Amino acid sequence: EWVHFIEFVNRIIDRFEMTKEKGITFVRRFPKYPVYVEIDTDKITQVMDNIISNALKYSPNGGQVTFKLIVYHECVEVRVSDQGVGIPKESINRIFDRFYRIDKARSRQMGGTGLGLAIAKEMVQAHGGKIWATSIEGKGTTIHFTLPYDREQEDDF
Ligand code: ATP
Ligand code: MG
Q1: Are 65 and 33 a contacting pair, CB within 8 Å?
Q2: What's residue 107's pLDDT?
Q3: Which residues belong to any copy of the Histidine kinase domain (predicted)?
Q4: CA gap 13, 7 in Å, rounded
Q5: pLDDT digits (tens, 9 = 90+) for 42-74
Q6: How far apart are CA 94 and CA 100, in angstroms?
Q7: Which residue, 54, 52, 78, 81, is CA-closest to 66?
Q8: Which of 36, 70, 137, 147 could form an SS bridge with 86, CB 3.0 to 4.6 Å?
């Protein structure tokens, strides 16, 4: 299904913004022009839901979650950054494995199964995209994912 991607993402973020706790602020950095992508909206909604709930779960009170959309020639990249506990270097790739949870008291208290990012990875890959994380422990985490995009196609809309 073809969607106006910024409107689509904004609606998902709005839904979290209405219910979020802990006084977390959302910041959106999106291009001013429309960007159309062909996606399975249910699946990409699940991907976004997973990433945003993690960002909220691992953020301190009063933290900021920043959403950024970067448009390249052949893909768009979504970045969701938090100011939370961060992820140790040795775990940065493993968080996308099934049932993997960073074994600190924190994850056990938080609840969850450790499947969220594994499912997100499957869904992004099914779209021909990539997903990865960057993080500085104690400072925060950014989850990045890409979706194929065709800049030339924009002319047809
Ligand atoms: P589920 O999503 O199934 O409810 P979960 O959130 O623990 O459980 P994932 O979403 O797959 O599972 O995340 C795997 C692990 O990666 C988490 O348990 C957590 O340790 C770590 N993690 C994920 N996102 C973040 C983040 N934004 N900041 C810090 N750690 C994170
Ligand atoms: Mg999760």
Answers
A1: no
A2: 60
A3: 1-151
A4: 10
A5: 999 999 999 999 999 999 999 999 999 999 999
A6: 7
A7: 81
A8: 137
The string of pLDDT tens digits covering residues 110-143 is 778 889 999 999 999 999 999 999 999 999 999 9
The bound ligand whose nearest atom lies closest to the alpha carbon of 100 is 1
Nearest residue by C-alpha to atom 2 in ligand 1: 116
Q: Is 140 left (phi over 0), alpha (psi -120 to 50) or beta?
A: left
The residue whose two tokens read 């993997």 is 100
Which pair of structure tokens corresponds to residue 98?
């099934």
Return the pLDDT at 80. 98
H or E, element range at 37: strand 36-38
d(CA 39, CA 124): 10
Ligand 1 binding pocket, CB closer than 6 Å: 50, 54-55, 58, 82, 84-85, 87, 95, 100-102, 107, 112-118, 141
Helix (H) or strand (E) holding 76: strand 75-82
Q: Which amino acid is at 34?
A: P
Counting ligand 1 atoms within 8 A of each CB, the residue from 85, 91, 117 with the most, and so the one to mutate, is: 117
Closest atom of ligand 1 relative to the 100 alpha carbon = 14
Measure CA 121 to chain center.
11
